[in-house]
Amino acid sequence: MTRTETPAPRMLEGIRIADMTSVVFGPHATQMLADLGAEVIKIEPPGGEIFRRVGANPDTPTMGACHMLLNRGKEAIALDLKAEDDCRVMHELLGTVDVFIHNVRGKAMDRLGFGYEAVKALNPAIIYVHGVGFGSDGPYADFQAYDDVIQAASGTATLLPRADGNPAPRYFPSLVADKIAGHYGTQAVLAALVHKLRTGEGQFVEVPMFEAFTHFMMVEHFYRGTFADNPEEFGYPRQLDPNRQPFPTADGHISIVPYHDGSIVKTFELIGAADLLDDPRFATTMDRYRNITQIYVEIGKRTPAKTTAEWMDLLNAAGVPAMQVRDLADLPNDPHLQAVGFFREREHPLAGRFTEVRAPVRYGADPDRTLGLAPEVDQDGEAIRARLQKRPG
Questions:
Q1: For the chain, how big is the Rg over CA atoms in Å?
Q2: Whole-angstrom Cα distance, residue 45 to residue 78?
Q3: How far apart are CA 362 and CA 74, in angstroms?
Q4: Of the residues 54, 134, 283, 382, which has the maximum number of CB atoms within 10 A of its CB?
Q5: Is 0.85 topped by the overall pTM?
Q6: What span, in angstroms and rounded, lies between the C-alpha atoms of 258 and 320?
Q7: Domain 16-217+339-389 has CATH 3.40.50.620
Q8: Which comes out higher in pLDDT, residue 365 or 152?
């Protein structure tokens, strides 16, 4: 690039979003939009929203680890919407944005004067996105929702027991419902923006966590329940097979996925079990599918004979999907993630040195750029107020 050239605008540059969400669902959605160049203004109560403190160091209690990743590239303003002056600032701000997204209960927003109809009167073309736990036209509409609640409601908490035989329902050890709902929220905003660009129309959009996450889980686990309402037919058997686990090696564990005929044949040959290809249980494609449990068992009997590295060399050379089992702490040193620049060391003026996870998707029209930093509470409040005061009229 020469001195006279300027960077091409980012894909969502010029789109302004007022983000009054908290915890993970909403901030995850708007963080992805900020990564794409949208101007995202994070609206918080005085003192900041509660998830700022998760994983924080004692000397920077409002700059926690999760906040650093969920709110990068956003501006921040603290507003007490029960105070007249701050309420006026909120009205002025909402008059300037393309999108308003929040996850406050609808009745509470109506009481504050920021329900959809009130905001639409301020800004007729606004896209008003309400992140809720449960859809507003169902009997759970007033229930509170967090990730654990949605995992329980969606049947997800019963899947691990089916897979390993431990009868107690339990949660998947990740905020999967929050994060998946966040992706649906991002999709909803982008679809509504496309509609607005075509027609000039804003709209009300509701993104319910329960329905979003259940939709996500049912892709495979609706299974034959799709055709018959029989509880025994729900759940994708391959995912729930107790033998579908990493296989032990001489020095660790490895994931091997003999998913189709070719990889099953190659795997049996590599583990010294080619004779099993003549076994009636594994004679045809359907036989192998029906007896996938036995295939896992036979592989697991033989993998301890070699080290993980030895198996990786053999399996990769044969084109069999495989990968060594890693610990989370191993990932920053993973050679592939290092090569693609997935982790980045950066400096924050308040939180100090930290490691950032970059956005995973790359766009030819929007080359990878350094992203903004997560804001302190009310970091941009004064500047935002000044901008609003300068608006015409």
A1: 25
A2: 5
A3: 20
A4: 134
A5: yes
A6: 7
A7: no
A8: 152
